[in-house]
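Input chain follows. Return structure tokens only.
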Amino acid sequence: MTDAAREITAPLDEVRARSLEAGERVELSGTVYTARDAAHARIARAIEEGEDLPFDLDGAVIYYVGPTPANPATGRAVGAAGPTTSARMDRFMEPLLERGLRGTIGKGPRGRECVDLCVRYGAVYLGAVGGAGALLGRSIRSAEVVAYEDLGTEAVRRLEVERMPLFVAGDTYGRDAYTMGRQTYLEGLR
């Protein structure tokens, strides 16, 4: 692992996802979809009822975010785009992973069952720094609502991102950067 961020592109394939290591810094470019709690509930219902999904999950990366509207004076696609707590989406993960979801972006640790599912399906969890929504918003080049417009900020959007600064919070081998960070800190106290 080096100090330089590795550039990766979404959609992700399994080989690339499995090459990432917990704690590694990455810069993500490409297509990312947004979905928070309400959108996940609707996607889960669509899966249960055999309906079409709002986007192809094969290789997809979902960002747990509801970006704020853009300030026209900035010329940006969105305003702030800070992550929401990922563990709230854990209960929705398996049906999405079964359909090819390859990565998620959020903040905070995931539950053990979710970590195990990511290992089984070869999916990676990318961490975004909470409180850095304005910085993350600068990486978003375009944003288009693709489903559930009635949810407002929580509608599903297709984002085109360029060099979004993230870190690998959970890799496909079950390693967790949050746990690793705590261990490193505690070892430093000895």
